[in-house]
Structure formats: structure tokens, C-alpha cells
Design goal:
The complex is a heterodimer of chains A (279) and B (86).
Chain A lengths: L1 H12 L5 H13 L1 H16 L7 H46 L3 E6 L5 E4 L5 E4 L3 E7 L3 E8 L1 E5 L7 E6 L2 E5 L18 E6 L6 H12 L4 E4 L6 H13 L6 H11 L2 H6 L2 E6 L2
Parallel strand pairs in A: 5-7, 9-10
Antiparallel strand pairs in A: 1-4, 2-3, 3-6, 4-5, 6-10, 7-8, 9-11
Chain B lengths: L11 H20 L2 H11 L5 H8 L3 H24 L2
Helix pairs in contact in B: 1-4, 2-3, 2-4, 3-4
The chains are: A alpha+beta (279), B mainly alpha (86).
Chain lengths: 279, 86
Amino acid sequence: MNEIAAQWIIREGAGNLSAAERKALSQWLAASPENEASYRDARRVWELSGELAQIPEIQAELSALRQQRESRLARGTLWRRTLVAAAAACVVLAAIIIWELRPDTQWYETSLGQHEEITLKDGSTLALGSNTRAGVRFSRGLRRLILERGEVLAEVAHDPRRQFIAEAGPGSVLAVGTRLQQPTGWGIDEALKLIRIEIDPEEISRAAKAALNLMPMLGWRCVLSTRRWRTRRSAHRVSNNWARSKKTWMKHLVGYNRNMTSTAPFAARCRTMASLSRT
Amino acid sequence: MNRSVDKSGPCLDELVFVELARDRLRQALAELPARARHAFLLYRLEGWSIGRIAARQRVSQRVVERDLAKVVEHLTRALFERKARP
């Protein structure tokens, strides 16, 4: 009986009883005079218990509780702040690590008339022509050669896990596979070991990519150059040779060849060509 | 102190009763476990909500409600039943 009365008092103490609750309460009160008596007692206790605030030791206890509350809250915010700070620190740390692990671009530069041979970490060699600026960036899955200006002759070391990508200007050129054996029946002099590709930085085409793809496969060295094309005729000869080679080699190349053998428009549109030059 | 004259404040026996009741309530409250006592003090005197007390004590609201009802029950018994006892 008292228990239920106490529950009602507590619920009332919370303030607003809902209409349903009020109805239930009045029903319960009406159910028996005992109920009503215990409710009245509990009500009285509730009211009188307000007097407890006058007792010094209760006041002390309350202020202790309040203090504790404050410190708990402070601890809570401190904990949260620590979490936030830790998260921020993690982010910063991750950023730093990523930044540190970010593949560095190693730049090589030659002045006018200067030439340089560079051996890269992976064994590839770069021959820098005069007035050249080229960057090399090795990451886990990629080897990247960036030609900013000038001419680079790259002998790409074979590494199937790391593609070699050459970039010159807006496009980028992919070299897959290196050092495949030179196809027979090409009629190309063993001494002809060098292919030169000149790329206009504004207009790198798929064809250029294809050509660069192929060159290392032939065991040749690539030359990336931003210089203008000079010997167009020999380019034709090369492309014809390529056309005569196996069709399965590269479909890109066929397209390249077709474009190449057609006359001016392609050359004007995409000044990307290949030539042979004697080493 | 005349009850019919003085209507503004409590009469003497009321004052005495309140004094007495306060003392009894204090005693009764001291008998209760700390969690329930604290919940009651915060609820009654500080006006905390049950939810807030529950969050503070890291218990469910049901537990706080039960604690509070137990306190009220205990105090009621202390105030009235003991008084009724000779």
C-alpha cells in the first residue's frame, strides 16, 4: 500500500502527471480509504522532506553532491576533450605519415649543352639531353617519369609489379613490360636500338602511349622529348615497319600506324611520332 | 498563539511537528543506502529529473524511480508508524 503511494508521490514529484495517470491515481485513491490514507501520509512526508534542506548536515551532503557533480562533469568533459585531442593527434599523425611516405619526386636537370646519365633505384637508366628537366617518382605500384622539358632517354628496367609511366605535359604515357626479345623478321639492324619519340606536351595522344608501350617491349630504349619533330620521313619508315610486324602485337599500334601513314592532318593534330636513329 | 487569529503562518503545534518531523526524517534518511539517499536529495531538494539522476548515478531510470519510492516509503513509515508506536 505504502509502496504504491510512494510511487505516486514520486511520479507526482516529477511534475506533470498525464491525464491517464491522473485518472489511474484517482481510481487507486478511490479504491480504498487505506490507499487514500497512505497516499496522504506519503504526500505529507514529501512536503515535510523539503524541511530537510534546513539541516546543516543535509546541506553539507548536498553541496558535496553538487561538488562531486561538478568534478564528475569536469572529468567527463576532460575525458571527452582528451578523446577529441587524441583523435586530432591521430589525424595529424596519419597526415604526417602519409606526407612522409608520399613518393618524393627526384628532379634531374641539365643545362644547355649538358648531358647526363642517371641510374635509378630500380636499375632503369635515364639519359638526359641538354636543357632538360625530368622528375622521377617511385611509389609502391608505380614508377613515374615526368618530363618537364627537354629530352630523356629511358632504359626501363623490367618490373611487372611496378608499371613505368612516362609523363610529358598533359597526357601520360604508359610503358608495360620491358626487355622482351626483339621480334624476328623485322629487318631492323641490330644496331638500331633506339627509338625516339617526340611529344608535343599539348598533344599527347593514345598513339604516343601505344608507341611508348611498345618500345620497351622491343627491348629498345625510349626517348621522351618535348622537342618538335624533325625527321618525319623516318617516322614513316618506322611506322611501316611496325605495320608489317605482327598484328597481335598491339592494336593501338595499328591505329597509330594508320594515322601515321595518312598525311598531314594527323601530324598536325598530334605531333607525336617515332623515328629510328642509330645508336 | 491563537489559531483563529494567526492565519498567515503555521501554528505552534504545526511548528513543533515540523521540527519533530524534520529530525525524524533526517534519522530515517540516514538509515538509507547512499545511492537512494542521494537520489532523493537531488530529486527533492535540487529538483533534478529522474533521467539526470540516473545518468549521474549510472543506473537506469527505473532503478532511480524504485530508489525514490523506497525512500518515500521508508520516510513515511518512519514518520507515521514510529510515531504511532508508543
